[in-house]
Amino acid sequence: MDSVYDGFVSKHINRKISEPIARLLARTRLTPNQATLGAFGIAALSFASFVLGYNILGGILAQLSSIADGVDGSLARLKGITSAFGSFLDSVLDRYADALIVLGMTLWSLFHESYPQIWLVGFLAIVGTLSFSYTRARLDPEHRFIFDKGLTSIASRDIRLFLVMLGGITGQVYFCLLVIAILTNSLVFYRLVYSYRHLRPETLPPKSASPASNTRKDATHTSRKS
Fold first, then answer.
1. pTM, full prediction
2. DSSP 155
3. Is 27 helix (H, G, I), strand (E, B) or coil?
4. Max CA pair span of the chain
5. What is the pLDDT of residues 96-108, one digit of tens each?
6. Which among 125, 119, 141, 105 is positioned nearest to 188, based on CA atoms?
7. Which of 37, 60, 183, 205 is deepest in the core (most CB within 10 A)?
8. Which residues contact 52 (CB under 8 A, 6 or more apart)?
9. Which domains does the chain show, CATH number per domain?
10. Does residue 217 surpass a pLDDT of 60?
């Protein structure tokens, strides 16, 4: 599995809850993949709560899904059964969970708030959320760590879901969507600019020729001289 990245909320809140839960579950037959499905199930309940008009419950469940999302990885390490498939499954279901929660918030806002362009804001929040995760995944590990600290990490998944909880509890779902849309898309744009400046072929250090290629060049040069 990939190395664990903990955002600010995950490090200071979520892990303090998910780690003890994982240690308890390590004594059971529960598998990490089942824990992953459980976290997704909580996110789906959050979506349903928003759709049915229970914004406070929806916000709390979103944060609970964020906490539960840390259980599967810890459980896999404690049981010594980490796998590439488990990491892949977790990443895929996280994206579906994110989209469902933001969609639920958008639908709640449409029926309970009267702000302009709710659909557009919700759409930008979903696109920004998915693009934020995708751009981090596409970067090679050599540069990925740059976006895991400081201001460039303020739209990480743990922070987004914590904002969802705050928006749900306070009933300010539209402004929560707006903040998520602005944060995620702004940082995706920053990542594009960074990649353009530092990861273009002309900005990368030249790769040293391998001994095999040097041998082929010498052989070609010799044959041409003869």
1. 0.85
2. T
3. coil
4. 85
5. 999 999 999 999 9
6. 125
7. 183
8. none
9. 8-199 (1.20.120.1760)
10. no
